[in-house]
Amino acid sequence: MALTGVQIFKLLPKTNCKKCGFPTCLAFAMALAQAKVDLAKCPDVSEEAKKTLGEASAPPIRTFNLGTGEKAVKMGGETVLFRHDKKFFNPCALAVNIKDNSSDDELVKIATGVVSSEMDRVGQKLRVDAISVEYASGNVSQYEKAVKLVAEKAPDAALILNCKDAAAAESAVKAVAARKPLLYGAAAENAEAMAAIAKTHGVPLCACAQGLDALSALTEKLQGLGINDLVLDSGAKTAKEIIEHNTQIRRSALKKGFKPLGFPILNCVIRDGSAFEAAVATVSIAKYASIVVLSSIEKWKDLALFTLRQNIYTDPQVPMQVEQKIYKIGEPSAASPLMITTNFSLTYFIVSGEVENSKVPSRLAVMDSEGLSVLTAWAAGKFTAAKIAQFIKDSGIESEITHKELIIPGQVAILSGALEDKLEGWKIVVGPREANAIPTFLKTRAS
Ligand code: SF4
What we know:
Elements: H1 5-11, H2 25-33, H3 47-56, E1 64-66, E2 73-75, E3 93-99, H4 104-115, E4 119-121, E5 124-126, E6 130-134, H5 140-153, E7 158-162, H6 166-175, E8 182-186, H7 191-201, E9 205-208, H8 212-224, E10 230-233, H9 239-255, E11 265-268, H10 275-286, E12 289-294, H11 299-312, E13 325-329, E14 338-342, H12 345-358, E15 362-367, H13 374-379, H14 385-395, E16 405-408, H15 416-422, E17 427-430, H16 438-446
Parallel strand pairs: 3-6, 3-12, 6-7, 7-8, 8-9, 9-10, 11-12, 14-15, 16-17
Antiparallel strand pairs: 1-2, 4-5, 13-15
Bound molecules: iron/sulfur cluster (SF4).
C-alpha cells in the first residue's frame, strides 16, 4: 500500500532544513505522497527510511520499454484515471499477431507491413509498433525460425513472443533476446518455467490469468520469483470486460496503491480483422491498455486507431504546436512568395499542405502564437501587427529575399494597415480567408 503524507513525514529527518526546495519536511512528505517529487531531493534521509520510502514513492504503475532502440515503446508510468486531471503519458503500442505456421510469404508480409505502417500526422510519426508471433505449430524449431524471420524483416519493431510452451519460448527468446521481446504466456501452471526464462534473458513477462483475483495472485508469485517487468492480461475479451478489468486495474494501482496490479495492461482484441475488431480496440486504447494486439493491420484501421491514440495521449491543456521559424515549401527562390500563419499544428499542416498543392515554391513564416489558430490568436492578442512585425524583423528573412511582400491570412485582413506602418517599406497582401483557396491564389499571382 502507498504511504500517506503523514506516514512519510514520520520517516523524514524533520529538521525543516529546506535543502529539498520545500519549506518544511511535511510539505515535502505531502508532495512525495502524490508522486510529485523524487525522494532523492532530500539528502539527509536515512538508509532505513530510504528503503521504506523508496518502495512507497515508486511509480504506482511500473514503467519499462517494449522493444529496444529509437522505436521502443515506453509503457506504464501513468498517474491519473482521467486525462483531464493531468494527461496520459505513454501512448499504447499497437501490435499485430501472426501464427508461426503461416507461410514465409505471410510472415514477411506482416513484418514489412509493420515497417511501412508509419505515417506522419500533424508532425508526429505514428506506426504499428509491435509484432506478436504466436506459437501455433507445436514445433519448437519452426517457432524459432518464424520469430527470427519476422525479427529480421522488421528490424525496429518490438516483438511479442506469444507462447506458453517453455521449450519453444526458451529457444525463441534466446534467438532474439537482444531485441528485449515481451514473453507472453506466464500462467499459473507454467509460472516458474516462464519466470526462469525471463530472468535468464532479462526480458519482460506477461502474466495471463482469468480475472483480477487470479491475476494478482500470479503477479505476486512472479515477483516472488524475481520478475519485476510485468505486463497484465486479465483475459478480458469483450468491450465490457475490457472496460471493467482495465478500469479496476488502473483504479487499484492509482487509488489504492495495490502493487500486484501496478503494471501495464495488454488487451488481445483478436477477432476477424473486421471493423468490429477495430471498434473493440478503440475501447482498449481509450481505457488504459498499454498494448493492444490485433489480428491484422490495414491502412483504414491503422489511421483510425492512430488518430484516436494520438488524441488521447496529447496534453488536453496544451495545444499542439510546431516550431516557430520560416519553413521552405518546395525550393523557393529569393523572389518566391512569403506567407505568414500561426504555430497551431493543424493550422500549419493545413496551410503548408495547400501551399504544396499549389506547386508554387514559397516560404511560410510560422509565428509562435502559443499553439492558437489564426483568429483565436488574433483575438487573444498573440498575433498582432506589432508581434508579426517584430517576428519578421528578427527572423532575418529580409536578407534572404529580393522583395518585401508579406501575405497574411484573409481572416486578419484588418491587420494590413497597422502592419504596413510597423514594417517600413513592406507591402502587405491579404491572402485567402480559407486555406483551400491558397492554391488558386498562389497560381494566379505566379501566372
Ligand atoms: S531536505 Fe529533507 S530534512 Fe530538509 S526539509 Fe526537505 S525533507 Fe526535510
